[in-house]
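A student in our group prepared the protein record below, which I am reviewing. Here is the record exactly as it was handed to me.
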Amino acid sequence: MPHLEIRNLSCAYGDVQVLRDVSLAAEKGEVLSLIGPSGSGKSTLLRVLIGLTAPNGGEVRLDGETVDYGSRRSVRALRDRAAIVFQQYNLFRNMTVLRNVTITPLKIKKQPRGEVHDRAVQLLEKVGLADKMDAYPDQLSGGQQQRVAIARALALQPEVLLLDEVTSALDPERVGEVLDTIRALTEEGILMILVSHEMSFVREVSTRVAMMDEGRIVECAPADILFGNPAEARTAEFVSKILGH
């Protein structure tokens, strides 16, 4: 049984159908990347998975248990096991880095303070920010803030980590440090679903890559196959344009 299974998932914004019968499955420890042109539904798929946008068809199963997106209890249970990092860092400006990482486990999950503090310190060391624990977000670069956002998500101890274009708002020189952080996370055994335009990085870290277009999955294959010998003409067209730049 797949750890995460998506079956015929659909989503509409008004009269605009954004996701059309999307089906995917992924196992623990995989890095599944979503690629495709802007507007193809990649970010919407992540928002639906985490319960921020309601689907209008299909189902999502985590460890065989169906997520009821119409139930607050079911969505809360999902968010106990999954976390998302967005393009924008969304850090609390009036809180230190350490406080940003610890506040949700303490206030929402009611976890023991000492345990939460120790885990936060370890995570900040992991993302290379052990010396910034007492700093405030405005004292950090964009890349550093994004690494704090990743540490904050990891503090929830998720089984599934969704990463939505986490480098797109960064200056080019800051992209590498965030990608290095994600690269290190591939050894943690977390299922990661990654939306990114950094094709060389996607090719390097992904277990599999899914090509999306017009709200559908065009094909899904191991990274070396999808980039080197795609089965679908639409994928070949997109990949050749992206890698040609």
Summary: Residues 167 and 198 are 8 Å apart (CA to CA).
